[in-house]
Input
Amino acid sequence: MNYPSTSVQDSSEQHVSEGLPSAIDPAQVGTAAPSLRSTRARELVFMIESLTAFYGEVAAIRDVSFEIYRRMVTAIIGPSGCGKSTFIRCLNRMNDVIPSFRTEGRILYHDVDLQGSGVDPVAVRRRIGMVFQRPNPFPKSIYENVAYGLRILGLKDDLDGRVEQALKRAALWDEVKDRLKRSGLSLSGGQQQRLCIARALAIEPEVILMDEPASALDPIATTRIEDLMHELKKDYTIVVVTHNMQQAARVADMTAFFSITKGDEGQRSGVLVEYDDTNTIFTQPKDKRTEDYVTGRFG
Amino acid sequence: MEADQNASQIFRTERIGRRKLVNRLVEVAATVSALLAVAVLVLLIGSVAKRGAGAISIDFLTKTPVINTGFGEPQPSGIANAIVGTAIIVGLAVLMALPVGVLTAIYLNELAPPRVASVLTLALDVLNGIPAIVIGIFVFVFLVVGHGQTAWKGGFALAILMLPIVARSTQEVLALVPSSLREASLALGAARWRTTLSVVLPQAVGGIVTGATLATARVAGETAPLLFTSSLVADDIRTNPNEALESMPMFIFKSAEQADPALHEQAWGAALVLIAFILITSLLARAFAARSRRRLLGER
Output
């Protein structure tokens, strides 16, 4: 049962030293200038410790432990029903709205326990944004979709500028700048999804969670979302759930592979099987189950 | 001809004649029933219109009731006080029932744990099934006895009738608002109430207005609660909700009981005005519903 956490710790230690140019002492990475960001300086954002999440009596995920690093794309892959979405929705406490939902274990966000008594989920979601599987723009104008979060926060100065900035970052500005008053629903599916990303970016979160953001989109729109993720990871920490392994391979720096185990009474729960550099996961997985999955023999 | 024979060869099937007959019978029965329902409405409106049309005039709508005793020139008589009274009583009922009904629906749909919600929904349905006269007696016993009748007590009785209709119809439209929109708002750091106010209610406003309009039309014709709460009235136009005010249903009820055929015609006339009011409100409600549906689909 301890399997995932041990494998994770091994691999992360290994990679801190492995990924850096040998001339640089890993201990000095934290003090080095931002120019070193491109190297593998890993700064913790989330530390997940033995997270188990229940819907009623059923554990959707069991004993998940790993770390998520700043300004990287972390992909969560795995077969249907392995708890990928449940997991990512724990990271901004979106599951709080489900009455029977509860968790055990801890999720530390910058060393603060997200489930802690003093933590307001509303404040959590302001720092940790989310993009959903199906584009879900509000049936308001394009402008109002992006301005919504800003208005809630009372960030009313230079609203136009902030909206423009967010749309530019989401690579949507050029397509919509002449029709900001049109309904967000008048856009194509891919544009709607980028609008949802712009909406999330507008309030300047640190983390963006994406729950299969391209699964409802055609291949061209998917490519644009993936390009966008590459661009956004310069400024944001991105966690993306995907059922598409190629997508994980293309966009992610780190990849976590979840799978399903059957408990003593046949109850199925998701567990973290392996977490490592995306490259390692896809080329030299340590676990047989990972290998079977990424080579298409399973799932 | 040969092709036809080929077709019946290929699509050979069992008991085809009998199955077609049963199908036809059910279709006919359903169509006739639907026509009957419309026919009842047409007959009803037709007969009210036939008997009441003679009473309708500008004077009828703008003058107050006059008892013509047969001496001297007959004075024009009207139902202006009943129209004004009904407007005030129903207006008060809407003011009381609409906010409470909508907030109840918000609680049921957005906040309540499922078990509480199902109990409350059942309670609303029971309330909806309580006869109007029982609600009339209830208000009579608790508010009128010892204090006297007033229009606002009539409005209160009608509000009790409206409340479950408004709450249930609002609840139904709120349930239609996709949960993905709520999630989108929550994920942007909006609190629950803000999400309800800024995202859910704007989506549902058309449906809420529709439900409220239908509920208004429904209670505007209620007589029983007003019998207990606002029936001992003066014949001139009054607007003070702290005294009993005339209303259209009460006017119809009282006039129809009289021996004077002129009053009978006035009762029919008032009935026609009431039906016209309800018809217009229902059509308005439909128009609102259609408009909000278009908005939901993103066409503006």
In short: The two ends of chain A are 22 Å apart (CA to CA).
